[in-house]
């Protein structure tokens, strides 16, 4: 018996790979074309941005001798052109503190009840001070140092700006930028603030700053500052935690400028920890949105401690901050990073309908069940199919990343390739598993294709125009994002979005993109995405396999709880007493059918038997629909077939022959009763039965892109044939069905005629020496020569196996079948070899004579003299047919009577024929149908 554990095999997908090279190439070319399209669009955009109007500005300067010197630089540029200019000497800006906006400044509330905080009413008047919190081991020294921080200089040197302003504790509510070439505080409508314990009445003045050749006029105003004592750093932490953001990122209340813990500071030791406000750092990417204004806080504390020791004239100068110089640049746009999440989501998700339609195609055309009926188990099928789709998807993604990198897309070149590999590999595994799961919901390829591509475009559009909105909304809770990322398409979009953000920022800042260390950033969503898709991959894969076993294989939903049933010596088990309602039916059965039933009952009591097939009281009932009664397709069939016998099933259309075959090959489950094949129960052991079974279905189940030879090689491997034995078996099979010569064996089966496909299906059913073979109308569509050749094949094949064959050809049944069974309305009406049936149901001769119509009466008298119990069955224009019972008719008397009649009248033609199998079939069918109508 063939097994599937140790065979080398490729399923239809891998076998088709040679034929699907063009399709796979087109599939892989899609992302390459899209990458090229992005590069072209990016090139067009960059060419547009690189126009002279966007380049660093230039002008002609008169040198005094009548000549014009061309000079370029930021001082000759517009704001748009300034971004591309080289800045060899960046401007110097006074150091600033980051101040909270007026409505967010710390005040006394019901949950922060420190009495030294200002009342909340100051927010309505716009007079809230900025707060600095102080603590330390020595309160006296800590408060003394804090008191020196906000000391106001005696005067401002307006001729030495901005250095004179650096002596003030300057701050601004304006958000910073990611560079400091232009300090945002000096290019906004808001004044720059300087912090004092008390603000005088004339607390606002204006200063002029020189920026190259441009003068910037800036208002400076006083803001009241308070340094408040807290008993410990834990109190400061508690106050900051309760007051800051209050759980809502947009509800920033009770912000402080900074907090200082002077720890064990004394006259001989300076030790301080500083809290600072990080509200304005970016929540995306690996670069801050703005430069954090922390250095001035450190300088204020250091300077105040120095003044405590040496007096107010001592100070640590912190005159300015400035950006590093930068070269001239071109104004470019990383288009792939901006649109990457949307486009690349479409690129990757398009693999889903490809896998889905391949799986549904096998299901719709019953190719998988055909493979299963020839011995391919569920486990090997899943492993082979999964490995094939994984190989195709991996190649697809590898080409995608390599090509995108070769043509220079920052999306690929800046982000760590190992992170990309892990992300793409896990996701394509999840996508394949999801396709296996969804395939159970479809039975039509067209429907699956439409739904699959709707998911492709829907995922991209929902990700780009809905999910991304939530990603960029800092107020949206993280738990909500995780919940949305449980949908695999959004997980993919989130990962691609993170790649795009890091690539865009890296291209803009001249740094690397995403690296493994960045996954520890709380604002980086890649880590959670990798966890989600990894867990989903395993869960979906397990659930898909379970659903496949229940839906496709027809197993019980609790199949995993059933212990594996082994084949025992007592595997033929006689069922309990037959139901009472079947007694009347048994009494009406013919003797031969009753004898067959008794034979089955006896075989079921034996511990072993040479019979390959035993059907015990097998019944199939289809439930009624739309008010119609239930349909009895097979009625209590009992049948036993020994090895080496070909059993023919005859019957009109709808008699139940195909339903019986479908039960035996596992396509449908019996309603009652069971059958045993080589000692295995069809209800529970079909997986093992498949390894010793061959099937020629009523309709050819072939891959149109495979040749006849490839079909037989494939199914031969399923039957555990290898090497030379496989090659020999394939060639013999092709020769036996006349598909070997003329290059027919290497033509695609899609180009075969109907007869050639039929012959190939017969060859498939017999390859690998199966012990049981089912042939459902194998000679349909064959010409006489091919049919005769097929009969020879079947006659040779039945020597060591049991064959069940259905046919409408009486000639075929008589030539091939050792025994015949005639079915009518699902019931077995008779069983026996052709000669027995003709003797039993055809116990008469058919006498035919043609004369002129004037002598019809004389012919009737002749027949009545030969056989008093004869019956006229046909009469037209002088031609009459009669049935003559054999027991009262001698052939010699018939010849003598005809010779005497010729002397009296003209006999145009006459004949005497024995009963044919067709006559038997018609007689039995009509009798059974008449009985069913009466009953």
In short:
This protein is 42% helix and 16% strand.
Which tags fit this structure?
single chain, 935 residues, alpha/beta, 5 domains, 8-stranded mixed sheet, 16% strand, elongated, ATP-binding
What is the number of helices? 30
Question: What is the CATH topology descriptor of the largest domain?
Answer: Rossmann fold
CATH class of the largest domain: Alpha Beta
Distance between the termini: 47 Å
CATH architecture of the largest domain: 3-Layer(aba) Sandwich
Biggest sheet architecture: 8 strands, mixed
Number of β-strand runs:
24
Determine the CATH superfamily of the largest domain. Answer: P-loop containing nucleotide triphosphate hydrolases
What portion of residues is helical?
40-55%
Total of domains: 5
**How much β-strand is present in the residues?**
15-25%
Radius of gyration: 47 Å
Mean pLDDT: 81
Q: Helix- and strand-based class?
A: alpha/beta
Description:
It is found in: Membrane. One of its GO terms (cellular component) is membrane. It is a multi-pass membrane protein. The protein has 935 residues and is of the alpha/beta class. The chain folds into 5 domains: 12-38 and 337-551; 54-85, no CATH class; 97-310, no CATH class; 589-831, Rossmann fold; 843-914, Alpha-Beta Plaits, CATH 3.30.70.100. Helices cover 42% and strands 16% of the residues. It is built from 30 helices and 24 strands. Strands 3, 4, 5, 6, 7, 8, 9 and 10 form an 8-stranded mixed sheet that branches. Helix 5 (139-149) crosses helix 7, helix 9 (351-364) runs parallel beside helix 13 and helix 14 crosses helix 16.
């Amino acid at each position: 018996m063939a097994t599937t554990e140790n065979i080398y095999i490729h399923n239809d997908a891998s076998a088709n790979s040679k034929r699907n090279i063009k399709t796979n190439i087109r599939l892989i070319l899609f992302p390459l074309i899209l990458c090229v399209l992005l590069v072209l669009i990016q090139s067009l955009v960059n060419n547009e941005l690189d126009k002279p109007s966007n380049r660093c500005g230039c002008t002609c300067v008169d040198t005094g001798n009548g000549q014009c010197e061309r000079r370029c630089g930021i001082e000759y540029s517009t704001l748009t052109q300034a971004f591309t200019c080289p800045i060899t000497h960046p401007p110097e800006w006074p150091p600033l503190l980051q101040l909270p906006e007026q409505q967010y400044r710390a005040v006394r509330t019901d949950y922060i009840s420190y009495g030294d905080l200002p009342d909340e009413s100051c927010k309505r008047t716009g007079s809230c001070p900025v707060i600095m919190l102080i603590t330390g081991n020595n309160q006296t020294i800590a408060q003394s140092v804090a008191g020196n921080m906000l000391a106001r200089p005696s005067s401002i040197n307006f001729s030495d700006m901005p250095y004179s302003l650096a002596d003030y504790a300057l701050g601004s509510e304006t958000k910073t930028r990611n560079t400091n070439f232009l300090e945002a505080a000096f290019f906004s409508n808001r004044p720059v603030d300087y912090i004092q314990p008390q603000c005088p009445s004339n607390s606002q003045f204006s200063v002029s700053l020189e920026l190259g050749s441009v003068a910037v006029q800036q208002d400076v105003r006083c803001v009241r500052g308070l340094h408040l004592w807290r008993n410990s750093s834990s109190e400061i932490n508690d106050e900051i935690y309760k007051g800051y953001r209050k759980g809502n990122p947009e509800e920033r209340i009770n912000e402080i400028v900074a907090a200082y813990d002077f720890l064990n500071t004394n006259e001989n030791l300076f030790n301080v920890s500083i809290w600072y406000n990080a509200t304005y750092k970016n929540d995306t990417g690996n670069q801050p949105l703005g430069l954090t204004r922390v250095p001035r806080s450190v300088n204020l504390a250091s300077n105040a401690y120095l003044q405590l020791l040496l007096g107010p004239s001592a100070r640590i100068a912190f005159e300015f901050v400035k950006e590093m110089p930068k070269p001239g640049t071109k104004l470019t746009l990383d288009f792939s990073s901006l649109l990457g999440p949307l486009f690349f989501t479409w690129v990757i998700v398009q693999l889903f309908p490809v896998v889905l339609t391949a799986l549904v195609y096998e299901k719709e055309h019953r190719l998988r069940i055909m493979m299963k009926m020839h011995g391919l188990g569920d486990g090997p099928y899943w492993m082979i199919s999964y490995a094939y789709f994984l190989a195709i998807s991996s190649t697809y993604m590898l080409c995608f990343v390599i090509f995108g990198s070769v043509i220079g897309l920052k999306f690929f070149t800046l982000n760590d390739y190992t992170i990309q590999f892990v992300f793409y590999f896990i996701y394509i595994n999840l996508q394949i598993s999801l396709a296996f799961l969804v395939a159970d919901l479809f039975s039509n390829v067209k429907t699956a294709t439409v739904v699959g591509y709707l998911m492709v475009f829907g995922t991209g559009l929902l990700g780009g125009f809905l999910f991304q909105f939530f990603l960029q909304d800092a107020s949206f809770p993280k738990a909500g994002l995780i919940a949305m990322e449980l949908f695999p398409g959004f997980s993919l979009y989130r990962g691609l979005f993170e790649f795009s953000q890091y690539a865009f920022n890296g291209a803009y800042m001249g740094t690397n993109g995403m690296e493994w260390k960045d996954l520890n950033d709380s604002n980086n969503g890649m880590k959670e995405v990798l966890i989600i898709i990894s867990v989903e991959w395993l869960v979906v894969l397990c659930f898909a396999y379970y659903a496949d076993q229940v839906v496709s294989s027809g197993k019980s939903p609790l199949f995993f709880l059933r212990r594996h049933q082994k084949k025992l010596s007592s595997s033929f088990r006689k069922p309990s007493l037959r139901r009472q309602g079947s007694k009347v039916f048994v009494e009406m059965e013919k003797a031969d059918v009753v004898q067959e039933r008794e034979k089955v009952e006896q075989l079921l009591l034996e511990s072993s038997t040479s019979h390959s097939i035993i059907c015990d009281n097998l019944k199939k009932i289809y439930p009624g629909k739309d008010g119609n009664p239930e349909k009895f397709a097979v009625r209590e069939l009992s049948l036993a077939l020994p090895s080496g016998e070909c059993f023919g099933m005859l019957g009109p259309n709808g008699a139940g022959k195909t339903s019986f075959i479908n039960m035996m090959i596992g396509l449908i489950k019996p309603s009652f009763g069971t059958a045993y094949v080589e000692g295995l129960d069809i209800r529970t052991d079909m997986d093992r039965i498949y390894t010793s079974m061959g099937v020629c279905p009523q309709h050819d189940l072939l891959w149109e892109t495979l040749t006849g030879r490839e079909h037989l090689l494939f199914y031969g491997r399923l039957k555990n044939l290898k090497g030379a034995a496989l090659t020999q078996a394939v060639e013999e099979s092709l020769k036996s069905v006349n598909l070997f010569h003329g290059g027919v064996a290497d033509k695609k089966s899609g180009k075969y005629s109907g007869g050639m496909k039929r012959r190939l299906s017969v060859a498939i059913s017999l390859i690998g020496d199966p012990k049981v073979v089912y042939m459902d109308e194998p000679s349909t569509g064959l010409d006489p020569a091919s049919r005769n050749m097929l009969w020879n094949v079947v006659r040779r094949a039945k020597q060591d196996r049991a064959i069940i064959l259905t046919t409408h050809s009486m000639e075929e049944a008589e030539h091939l079948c050792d025994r015949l069974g005639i079915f009518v309305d699902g019931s077995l009406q008779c069983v026996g070899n052709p000669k027995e049936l003709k003797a039993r149901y055809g116990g008469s001769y058919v006498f035919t004579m043609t004369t002129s119509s004037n002598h019809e009466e004389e012919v009737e008298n002749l027949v009545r003299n030969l056989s008093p119990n004869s019956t006229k069955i046909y009469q037209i224009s002088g031609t009459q047919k009669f049935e003559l019972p054999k027991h009262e008719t001698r052939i010699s008397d018939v010849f003598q009577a005809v010779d005497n009649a010729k002397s009296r009248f003209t006999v145009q033609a006459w004949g005497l024929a024995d009963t044919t199998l067709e006559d038997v079939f018609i007689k039995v069918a009509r009798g059974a149908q008449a009985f069913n109508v009466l009953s």
